[in-house]
Amino acid sequence: xxxxxxxVGFFTRLPVPKVEFxxxxxxxxxxxxxxxxxxxxxILVLVSAxxxxxxxxxxxxxxxxxxxxxxxxxxxxxxxxxxxGVFSGRSREQSLEIMKDSRIGVFGxxxxxxxxxxxxxLFTAAPVPALLVFPVCGRACCLLSASxxxxxxxxxxxxxxxxxxxxxxxxxxAASLVCASFLTIPLALxxxxxxxxxxxxxxxxxxxxAARAAGVAGAGATGVVARAASSVPQTVPFGIxxxxxxxxxxxxxxxxxxxxxxxxxFMTARLKAKLGGxxxxxxxxxxxxxxxxxxxxxxxxxxVLPGIIFSTV
Length: 313
Known about the structure:
The protein is 69% helix and 0% strand. By secondary structure, it is mainly α. The protein has one domain (2-304). The longest helix is centred in the last third of the chain and has 30 residues, at 246-275.
């Protein structure tokens, strides 16, 4: 429990009991990083309920602010530093030195802007199951990246993460991704219960529109739902159709996770070629890029795979 609390306290702004930091404890605890992502995902699922009473753009903005607040912007900082160093066009040593500079440059600013814009667009219509799993995916990909390349610096805070990587860390990351994907099934069951209890036909037009904009699926619907905006479709609150397509939801998550893993492997290879390895900053960049790839791919898979439709207004 102390190891988990150490990870939560170190990688989030959640109020938890303070645990004394030691490098040895950190190395043992870093394999629990995906569980920290799961805790963030649960909170974001609860925050996403604002989609019932607010327009989709407000939902997206609130989720972006909540995500940044919960993580303390830690990984955005790593993304900015990585962009400044990698895209500077300088030598390995100069790039690493740029990444240590506390000042932000043009490439770092652009990186944060593009990531924030991507999150806003994806959160506006993200199905709730994706909100649960994407923080797990990003942090699992961090462990994968740490296992695929050496640490590029002689010292640094991220070195302990690299030293703690290896087959066990990869196995932990893979297991967490699979388990988190299957956790979308209880959300689907809950959605069915809420749909049946509330009475779908009684949903007001305004709420139905907000629900569709939030990525809510039409039960037994086809593309007609997206075109018939004036009608009230059979909707459920958690972005999953009531036709029992729970297997499809899990497949969407696993496909999205696979895409994030592939991007992480490619990204780590490029970082290794440019910097000679990975750093604490690149771990943050991997987390954010993998998370965005997961959210995007989940949405695309949900459009393509049968049995689940994510409607937009």
